[in-house]
Amino acid sequence: MAAKRYTDEYLIDEVKRITKVLGRPPIGAASEFPGVGAATKSFGSWEQFLSAADLTLVASEGEGEDIKERYIKEANEIIRILGRTPKMNDFDDYRIVKYYFGSWQAFKDSWGE
Fold first, then answer.
1. Least packed by Cβ within 10 Å: which of 9, 77, 110, 113?
2. Mean pLDDT of 16-21
3. Alpha-carbon span 8 to 82, nearest angstrom
4. What is the pTM of this model?
């Protein structure tokens, strides 16, 4: 069996560092957190890893209001220009939308689908 490449302490320190840079926890993609595979293997899941680092999958109440407004505006533009309801793949990464709104349904509810 191969030795761990990263220690749990290193992974937690690194996710906290990246959280400060991004202004939110990484979404669980290698593009935002290169150690995502090691973290999920070591902690059991991305959610458990974030919990161990005292972070969450969902923004706290009132966090990112300007970002939420931008996503709502973007959704309304998709409706206006394309004449259809926005889809998850209309956004760079729907997991970021879910982070700020709590769920895709809550996001849809925010722009009144």
1. 9
2. 96
3. 46
4. 0.80
